Amino acid sequence: MLIQRVYEFDMLICPRCSGQIKIVAFIEPPQGDVIEKILRHGGLWCAAAPRAPPGGDLRNTFVTP
Ligand SMILES: [Zn+2]
Question: What is the pLDDT of residue 64?
């Protein structure tokens, strides 16, 4: 309600279809396994592509012409 008042934006209204958004959980990090479980249950999980570790060598990450 405070966010709606400040930003004049209702977070519980879907911007695509104007339907009511239902909050299913409040998750605080680190709970990646819980997020994955919820998204898998809803058929929304998409495995991330592998990426270089932080501070890693990025020279082979991108293909250059
Ligand atoms: Zn929607």
Answer: 43
Averaged over 34-61, what is the pLDDT? 74
Record the pTM: 0.41
15 CA to centre of own chain: 16
Give the Cα separation of 53 and 32 in Å (integer): 17
Residues lining ligand 1 (ion), CB within 5 A?
14, 16-17, 19
- 56: CA distance to ligand 1 center in Å? 39
CA of 29 to the centre of ligand 1 (A): 26
Q: How is 3-21 classified by DSSP, letter by letter?
A: HHHHHS--TTB-TTT-PBP
61 pLDDT higher than 60 = no
What is the spatial distance between Cα 63 and Cα 45, in angstroms, rounded to a whole number?
27
